[in-house]
Amino acid sequence: MNPHMEFNDKTISTNLGTKIFGGKVFFFKSIKSTMDYAKKLAEMDEPEGTAVIADYQSHGRGRFGRIWKSEPGENILMSIILRPTIPLEKFGILSLLTAISVSEAIEKNANVKITTKWPNDLLINGKKFCGILIEASIAVDKGDFVILGIGINVNQTKFPKEIQDYATSLSLATGKIYDRTIIVQDILRSFETDYAELNKSKNFNSIIERWKKRCDMFGKEITVIYAGKTITGKAIDVDEKGLLILELENSNIIKLSSGDVTIVK
Ligand code: BTN
User: How confident is the prediction for the chain on average, in pLDDT?
Assistant: First the structure.
């Protein structure tokens, strides 16, 4: 399938000032999912930092097999190929890092205060406007790679009834229309700097601290849906691998690597 150029890959790739991210950008007016296309590219040895961007996805997906719906031409739908040098068990940190990079890039463009919900949802006024999906592949002979998917509600102002109470966009939150190209450029730049730090860091304390500053769930009672079970407890912290530390009602401490969090009180 040939990428159909849409919101202009020349504009996005020009003068980015990055060495890795956005070096190659593939655009589609419409695609099933940028995740699948980026995975194919990674299997064909396309380099780290290659981005696949679409104006519309017919089969966009979110975490836990959910559907990610987005109106055509309104939002940012992007997948990026990563070839991280950190060990597989530390990939949880990638979620936190992406959440910070994207938040900082967006706050440069929009007058909003972005908060994080573990592991990698981004919220404005308690409503989700950005989701991050990380899919790791162990490719024999081709090296391990990760596809980082980022979906950002930018200019969409109408959402299906069933998610209206939980979803928002930059436009809904601020009453303005945003240039998606500029936001994508800022994300690629911000990610390039943060990702270089991740690959060379021995510990991830500074990344975790930056992420925690944006997160208001610590000390609160939360529920986490994890492996089909609902677990209730107090959110204590995240550890050096990005795992959530939860104190259960019986005072036992557990660590979770993923899950769907709701703040109870
Ligand atoms: C989530 O469940 O919060 C993660 C949503 C991730 C959506 C993005 S949009 C671009 C990329 N392509 C997909 O099919 N999904 C991710």
Answer: 91
